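Hi everyone, sorry if this is the wrong subforum. Our group has a chain we'd like a structural model of before ordering constructs, and none of us has done structure prediction before. Sequence below.
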Amino acid sequence: MPRWLLPFLLMLAGCGNQPDFDERFRQQSDNLAAEANAIEAELGNQLAGADEAEQAVGEDAVASADNRM
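Answer:
Right subforum, don't worry. Here is the predicted structure as tokens:
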């Protein structure tokens, strides 16, 4: 076997350990989906908190108006 062929064979053997495109794509897709779900959950929590705060302010305004009468 020629001496120059050995480094190329070693490089090829090392490349076999890398995930292929489909595997990397699937992994990145799963990561992005998980991040999107986390963002949606946080947004839902923030909107629920805003709705509760709005209701509390509305109830305080009604109570203040009732006390003035």
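For your construct planning: The first helix runs from residue 5 to 15. The mean pLDDT is 83.
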